Amino acid sequence: MFRRAPLIAVLVVSLVTVVLALGTNLIGKTAGVDRLTSHLKPDFAPATAGQVQKDAATVAAMSSQLDNQAIPALAKKAGMSVAKFDSVLAMNYPKVAVGVQDLPSDLKWFGPIVQGLTTHATDFSKADAIPLSGIPARTVPWLLILPGLLAAGFAGGALAGRASRLRALSVAGACGGVLIVGALICNVPGKSAAVDNLHTTFGPYFTPNGVAHSQRSMNRIGAMVAQFKNEALPGLAKTFKVPTATFAAQLATGFPAVGTGLAQSDRI
Predict the structure, then answer these.
(1) pTM, two decimal places
(2) Tens-place pLDDT, residues 148-166
(3) What is the DSSP string of 27-65?
């Protein structure tokens, strides 16, 4: 019995490894990782991440100048208090009013994404290189399943008397050694920590609530910009008795952050 115990241990551990890899759908999950990293890789590139930060700063500057300068100035020009002007704006251009009101909180919501594309670029590179750079993550389950099946097969054969006990233990030792050394060479602990860092920052945005929140924010901002360009600009120009193009130029000159934000809004 004592001579069989190591073989039984090898068989059990090997089969548990295989069952866990299959039972937790590691094959499907790692394929999902490959799809995710493939889609997100361009966004973590320095040029793209830098542009995202510039765009976020452009929108934030537009939001601040709208609230603190443009709207008070337009209210004064219309002979109204800011509160009265806001109420008229909300009545005639509700999407603009809601968008302007909620823009600071929307920018705050997207802030971790904007910063994370730069601050977590190294973490993404590590996660994208599991197990090694250039090798897809979907190979990871097979690095567990195949050695597990091999060790289990030899252990089972030795227990049944059809294979050498020494050979079975040697194969099991070799498989275990390869897995341990491979994990260290591939820096699996460091890469796992990088994945945890990414999940902490970006995980909330991939939940159903996070996706819905982001979509509402994007829809709200898009509706605000569209209504401002297509309705509010012509309407305010008419109120101030100037052509729409002239009023837009005056707005851009007097409030450059607003002008820049509106000019770049479609691309952003």
Answers:
(1) 0.81
(2) 999 999 888 888 887 788 8
(3) HHHHHHHHHHHHHHGGGGSHHHHHHHHHHHHHHHHHHHH
